Amino acid sequence: MKKKKKIRCRRIKKKLKLLLIILAKKLKTIAKNPKLILASTMQIILGSTLMAISTNVLYIPHGLLSGGIGGISLMLHYLLNFNLGWTIFALNIPLFIIGIRFLNITFIIQSWIAMGLYSIIINYSQFLQNKIYLNDMMLVSILAGLISGLGLGLVFKGKGSSGGSDIIAMIIKEKYSISIGTTNFIVNLAVLLLATFFFNIEIALYTLIASFVTSIMTDKTSTGFGNQKAILVISDKGKEIAYLLTNKLKLAATLIDGKGAWAGTEKTIVFIVVPIMRLSRIKYISQKVDPNCFITVINTNEITGGKKIADSISLK
């Protein structure tokens, strides 16, 4: 028993040392690039605030639930009058402790900050609960999802998370390679099924709508609302197409050497990322040069780096 205690103490000491090292590195990073850290921190603060406001203005007054730890906390709040903020905080503690063992420490720290802020702001913004009441539950569900999703997306952009099912999902992904989305869906569905035993099934269904809107808004916020498209043009006349695109439309393009798998003929692949409004013009030019060219249009979630040749062009 004594040996086991000593081993545990050593492990705890190692983890504490690791935390101190990471914090020291963080401070150095802040000193080197304060704007980046400030932007990340502001995103987490703003995101946590929006989620808390959505909870107090829309979720609680209208009796909505949510998935994961938040949903369990809301049920305890409705049924037993538990303090919502501290319940969320308390239920997340064991998950974060487990998360330290499996996940990136930096992510855990930032997620802990986001979750802590969310819990505190919920408690200190309770005065908003009776300010707005809407009779249309569908509208409430959509608004709740939009605001919560915007907040959660900002937290994700700030390299954090809201804790709860996100931590569970990431641990399961690390251990069993099951996607985060799948795990979150299962956890949220389980909470909503549990809710049907205590609450009106309509509330569970409206909550499902809010959760769906939240997931979409979270993705859009964290990855961007841009309407950029990645285009691959595969052609025997790729260089001619690229020349027209770069000279006529003033767009940056990348040429990639390719080879047809069936015929073995040499191909030139033109890779370009553009706003959706320029798509038709690019297709027109490409097909005019080579009517047999193969064009693929791909949705883009995020674009970083690169140079913009022209700020604006005429598509006439």
SSE blueprint and pairings:
Blueprint: H1 2-32, H2 34-59, H3 68-80, H4 84-102, H5 105-124, H6 137-157, H7 165-176, H8 180-195, H9 201-223, E1 228-235, H10 238-248, E2 254-259, E3 266-275, H11 279-289, E4 294-299
Antiparallel strand pairs: 1-3, 1-4, 2-3
Membrane topology: Multi-pass membrane protein
Domain DUF2179: 253-305
Transmembrane segments: 76-98, 105-125, 137-156, 176-199
Tally the structural domains: 2
Helix count, DSSP H or I runs of 4 or more residues: 11
Terminus-to-terminus distance:
81 Å
- Beta-strand fraction estimate: 5-15%
> Which blocks of ≥5 consecutive residues have pLDDT under 50?
308-316
